[in-house]
């Protein structure tokens, strides 16, 4: 391990993390996400090393006992997990083992740090176990989830993490990200009330372009459903299946939702409260579920 921050396009993110180290003000959980191969894993490792280094500077010294143990993968306050060799997903037994190790008292440093590489690829049971950990982490514990995409991670976990995005994205990753935004739009209509409110918080923290892409996908779903209601085919068969998410809603409610999303698109350009608007839209959907 090289104890020096990488020279990448992500200097803004690195400066922010160094500021946290300097002030010693940490969230209990972070989500580092972005395209593959953009060194976010290395940034996570250096963030962890800087926190645990005896000198506790913005750059780990590389010489103290903590740094040497981190380098040799023997530090008792560090837990790293990723999918086991030959397996695609991180399993629940790995998460349970991580939770057990994090619960042990640390004699070398006040902090314990867990890094979950491939946080996009956990089994459902493992995600449920991870949720309990980020909801009620052991004292002085810091959790770093590293993911190439966020649309597979439950919103209940995302909403409990401080999100740090690493870009820019190459063409293939942009396509993957677009698919992820479309998935979130579908989940906004098909998920539970709690998931919608968590998603409202998540989307409101994104860039303006990603917020607008999300809203456009919402409109696409609503328009498809509206055309289905009045007996017109609209778009591909795939679009019609997406519109079925709202197939039981009255036409008047669909038109109201379209109006609200259009209003949010206009207001979002003027730095309006995106989260509040999405929560109001969620309340309308909640009313549909009660009918």
Taking all residues together, what is the mean pLDDT?
Answer: 81
Most strands sheet: 5 strands, parallel
The number of domains: 2
Share of residues in helices = 40-55%
Please report the total strand number as a whole number. Answer: 5
**CATH topology description of the largest domain:** Rossmann fold
Query: Given the helix and strand composition, which structural class is it?
Result: alpha/beta
Order of helices and strands: HEHHEHEHEHEHHHHHH
Instruction: Tell me what the CATH architecture of the largest domain is.
Output: 3-Layer(aba) Sandwich
Q: How far apart, in Å, are the first and last alpha carbons?
A: 58 Å
Radius of gyration over C-alpha positions, nearest whole angstrom: 21 Å
What does this structure look like?
The chain has 291 residues and is α/β, with parallel strands linked by helices. It folds into two domains: 11-168, P-loop containing nucleotide triphosphate hydrolases (Rossmann fold); 193-290, no CATH class. It contains twelve helices and five strands. It has helices at residues 11-23, 40-52, 65-71, 92-103, 124-135, 155-158, 171-190, 193-204, 208-229, 237-243, 251-268, 274-290; strands at residues 29-34, 78-81, 112-117, 141-147, 162-166. Strands 2-3-4-1-5 form a five-stranded parallel sheet, with helices on both faces. Strand 2 (78-81), helix 4 and strand 3 (112-117) form a beta-alpha-beta unit. It is elongated and about 70 Å long. The relative contact order is 0.10. Mean pLDDT is 81; it is low at 236-244.
């Amino acid at each position: 391990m090289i104890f020096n921050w990488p020279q990448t396009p992500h200097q803004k993110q690195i400066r922010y993390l160094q500021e946290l180290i300097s002030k010693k003000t940490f969230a209990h959980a972070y989500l580092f996400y972005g395209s593959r191969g953009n060194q976010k894993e290395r940034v996570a490792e250096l963030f962890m090393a800087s926190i645990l280094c005896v000198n506790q500077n913005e750059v780990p010294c590389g010489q103290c006992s903590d740094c040497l143990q981190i380098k040799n993968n023997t530090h008792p306050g560090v837990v790293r997990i990723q999918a086991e060799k030959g397996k695609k997903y991180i399993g629940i037994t790995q998460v349970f083992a991580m939770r057990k190790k994090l619960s042990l008292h640390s004699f070398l440093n006040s902090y314990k740090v867990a890094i979950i590489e491939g946080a996009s690829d956990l089994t459902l049971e493992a995600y449920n176990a991870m949720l309990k950990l980020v909801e009620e982490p052991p004292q002085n514990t810091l959790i770093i989830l590293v993911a190439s995409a966020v649309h597979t991670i439950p919103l209940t976990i995302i909403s409990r993490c401080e999100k740090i995005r690493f870009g820019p994205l190459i063409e293939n990753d942009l396509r993957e990200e677009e698919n992820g935004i479309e998935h979130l739009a579908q989940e906004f209509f098909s998920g539970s009330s709690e998931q919608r409110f968590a998603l409202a918080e998540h989307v409101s923290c994104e860039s303006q372009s990603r917020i607008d892409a999300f809203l456009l996908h919402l409109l696409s779903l609503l328009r498809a459903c509206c055309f289905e209601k009045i007996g017109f085919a609209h778009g591909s068969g795939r679009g019609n299946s997406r519109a079925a998410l709202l197939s039981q809603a009255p036409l008047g409610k669909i038109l109201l939702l379209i109006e609200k999303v259009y209003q949010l698109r206009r207001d979002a350009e003027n730095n309006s409260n995106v989260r509040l608007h999405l929560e109001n839209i969620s309340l309308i959907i909640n009313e549909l579920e009660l009918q």
